[in-house]
Please model this.
Amino acid sequence: AQSVTQLDSQVPVFEEAPVELRCNYSSSVSVYLFWYVQYPNQGLQLLLKYLSGSTLVKGINGFEAEFNKSQTSFHLRKPSVHISDTAEYFCAVSINDYKLSFGAGTTVTVRA
Amino acid sequence: NAGVTQTPKFRVLKTGQSMTLLCAQDMNHEYMYWYRQDPGMGLRLIHYSVGEGTTAKGEVPDGYNVSRLKKQNFLLGLESAAPSQTSVYFCASGSTSYTDTQYFGPGTRLTVL
Model:
């Protein structure tokens, strides 16, 4: 079975500063990797996903993530955050089936 | 195109009461899911369905039942609510490709007193 660990539960960051959210997974087989975002009082929406190919994946709203197979990581980055990026971010993995396993989430609070 | 909708948005129950949460999707997706979200635990899969008339248990199925009588609807039932079921419940739907995105509803906040 796979598991997902998000290494930071809370990340405070100033506006226009960069941010990195860390995600590690454990699986004995190849996985598909996702980052979802949940804005306050809303459902989750997809930011980006890694299926195969280039290890650097670009998503919506200027986010990108890098898949590192040797370190079993899929960290999410944004070079310059906005107040509107305040949200909870979830890393998720899937292995050849239709179920996602989610991490516990990272709350990003952007301050002016 | 409304996507995934959930009814109701909020509900307060007393211990032992029952209720049904309704999820509807208009994207003709085969797969539908029910998750619960608790602080510090992310989302956990309760039950899911791979097509009309089918259901399967997820990670935390105890105390819940589901039905998928129509392709567009997925119902989650609590027969005898307990305080441990206080949570935010999300429904999601997806296509038959496991690399596809899951689309989430806005959630139902349930409090069991």
Summary: DSSP finds no helices and eleven strands in chain B. Residues 13 and 112 of chain B are 5 Å apart (CA to CA). The mean pLDDT of chain B is 93.
